[in-house]
Design brief:
Keywords: Nucleus, Phosphoprotein, Repeat, WD repeat. By secondary structure, the chain is of the alpha+beta class. Helices cover 16% and strands 26% of the residues. Among the domains are: 41 residues, no CATH class; 335 residues, Methylamine Dehydrogenase, Chain H.
Length: 611
Amino acid sequence: METVPKLGNNVPPKKDKLQGKKKKPRRYWEEETTQTAAGASPGPPRKRKRNRELRPQKPKNTHSTKKSRISKKPQVPKKPRERRSPGPQRSLSGAQDPFTGPAPVPVEVVQKFCRIDKSKKLPRSETKIRSRLEAAEAQEEEISVKAARSELLLAEEPGFLEGEDGEDTAKICQADIVEAVDIASAAKHFDLNLRQFGPYRLNYSRTGRHLAFGGRRGHVAALDWVTKKLMCEINVMEAVRDIRFLHSEALLAVAQNRWLHIYDNQGIELHCIRRCDRITQLEFLPFHFLLATASETGFLTYLDVSVGKIVAALNARAGRLNIMTQNPYNAVIHLGHSNGTVSLWSPAMKEPLAKILCHRGGVRAVAVDSTGTHMATSGLDHQLKIFDLRGTFQPLSARTLPQGAGHLAFSQRGLLAAGTGDVVNIWAGQGKASPPSLEQPYLTHRLSGHVHGLQFCPFEDVLGVGHSGGITSMLVPGAAEPNFDGLESNPYRSRKQRQEWEVKALLEKVPAELICLDPRALAEVDVISLEQEEKERLERLGYDPDTKPPFQPKPKQKGRSSTASLVKRKRKVMDEEHRDKVRQSLEQQPQKQEKAKPMGARPSALDRFVR
């Protein structure tokens, strides 16, 4: 019962124990005993200020068990996750994808990018080596599939030239092509009238952006032929016989009358190489950083431009060397001689790798396509021939020209250009890997002077012609590859990108000793040379160190090492080895089929002598 306070006293009335007892605040990690009101936020409650003075202090040293304030939640056993069957994938909108999995790739497109010959079986080798070979083969197959799938992203397509019904494309002149194409393509056709210093030789850079040309009377110039911006122009006051860009457009090699000179893109002379004298032809091997020179004295010289040393100087023993070209596939140099033969050279060999008899008279021009499978030659017998370089070296087709072709050039897509006097004829084939058809020309163009140099521009449908009247840039639809590799030959690269590419190319430089006819043979084992080395080794040592030494029994104690026991043990081992050899020889011999005996024949005692 509540007591009524007396009047005049300021004492508050006493409350009941149940009402006066302070309610314990609930922590947010404890379970909620009462139902939360509708609309209340489920988050943790706000912290309240506590009056530490009113909290009684607990003794420090207490041995009584402490009850945890954190209430343990009842543990519910987790249900195992059910594996869903791989059904059709759905997008965010809930629509079902009708094309599940990766896009299929045609087998023909994959084979175009595949570089492994699956017809050859893997050799029987150790398990570890065989697993590595299988992994490499699987990786190569995956890369070829990715390359075939990414081919769809190539935006550019090769050009083509088609006449109307029954119209011959050879009768279409350059003025008609310029009127039909767009303004940017029409600007690629131009003529440089330089009759004062001609005839001219020309060369395009690997990116196809820059052009260098040199006249017989000493005129040397280099320019960005797309924007027509002149890089340098000098007169060396000496006859220029040939000109070549080195690994980039920043360096230029000029074969002058006496020696070989190296210039930069500003026209400043950097080097004068006097060991290469009286040069007639130049060729640069980009992956080996080798400059090949052919001279009047009959020497073929290889100069390593990365270190400035001569790698090899080979004597062709065929007189003056006027005809030279390179095979882009294997970096082999082809030399044409006055006796009608074409010889193939490598700096690793002092003798030619092969000799091909091509013409009855002297050879006037040689060209090899980008795939390295076909070679075109022309001679004094007015014959133009296409040869197969895949081991047979046999002529595939031939054509007799009214005048012998003095200059030949292949494009990236297999078009063949031939300069006969002041006329340039171009033949086309069925594709990149097929030889050009010599029945009917694809295009024909007449110049203002005699042709002295031909080259197709990389990644552009342009043919550069150097003649006695200057330089002419022709439009040839379908001549070049429409898409370029931006990491290898980028015509739009900056100066910083070019410097980084030079460092990478120097690190990946291929040694000159690896130049051979078949580059795929580098990954194989030369069995003949291995056997020859083993034979020479045995002759030098006088015995075979790999043979098994004779058996020597170990000495034993307690009288078991007597002479008779040692001989007995040796004979036992010899007999076992003899039995193994006989067993192996019997397994190697073909088993003879026994003659079938007639049914019902009685056995005889003489059957033991029947063979």
